[in-house]
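Fold it.
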Amino acid sequence: MSRSCDLSIFHPEDPWTLGVELEVRLIDAETMKPANRSPYLFEHLPEALRPNVHQELLQSMVEIVTPVCRSADEAADFVMNTLHALTRIGEKEGIRLAALATHPFERKEDNKRFEDPRYAAFAEELQIVLKNFLISGLHIHVAMPNEEAALRAYNASITYLPIFLALSANSPFHLGEDTGLQSYRSKIFERLPRAGIPEYFGSYREYCSLMEQLYATGTIQSAKDVWWDVRIHQGFGTVELRVCDAFYDRERLRLIVLFYQALMYRLTQYPVGRVYHQISKQNKWNAVRHGMEGRFIEGDRIVPIRDKAHELVDMLERTGSFEALGARPEDIRALHELIDKESIARKLRRIYEETKDFKAVIREELID
């Protein structure tokens, strides 16, 4: 069996566990510009957090990685507790943390990269694309029982990417201007050669075959070099949702993670059909541009993304998917309320319209 098709990575005895990864920007408390001070944070990290706070491409960024969690509540609590711990470390040095998917007015010259062979190789290959890669995201892992479930979850995720993007949209500003979009981060990410909406696969072996070709041709050195909006993580045995913007709101995080976990639980058993790639692209664009007010194309039917999200929550409740994962009735009510809530991007745009001050926008996103 090829190295990319090792079936022992999956979790038949303990599926549906979770992992969350959140990329967070470091901000100078006075200027609100990027603070290239992550080496300071790493130097002062308590031993217990060292496995869970990782270096990223930029010195103005860190990544929080949860341990394996059994519930969305556990994952959200870990992320928030870690954010608060990092905030306490940084405040003595005037370092603040903000889960900004894009910084409203930074320039590439404001940031320093880590000297790392992997990053150096990316810089040589990607040139200006990497220099302008100043974004932060949220990744959600759900453990899969076997390869068939993983493939079904992966394929189904492609269909529903716009919903999770719209729920997390948090990047309306870039280079000192309003982009007019809800998630400009998504468009920046799509500049990478192995990013964006991936293709459907008819079997897990077919998925493995593509990975083997990428390895054999030297296109990738590890599975981490594939940056699709969703992927089967062949190190962890999970399906990893990667389309979401970074944000810091605990309740929004908890509910989005629960929603994705329940959807994967259901759709590994009753998968959705394939959607044309152009339809997937259009639906994603509608979320990028309009958020929850965007149109969701489903066959010949068109509904607002918000309405489709409500329908999915109702279906998951009706079929017992939330209950099977230990969710409470109040969680389902809260998820419906979140779907109807103003997006982060719209809130930030409103703050800027009222203040004409990008620093006020950033202060809204600082972690206390």
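The mean pLDDT is 96.
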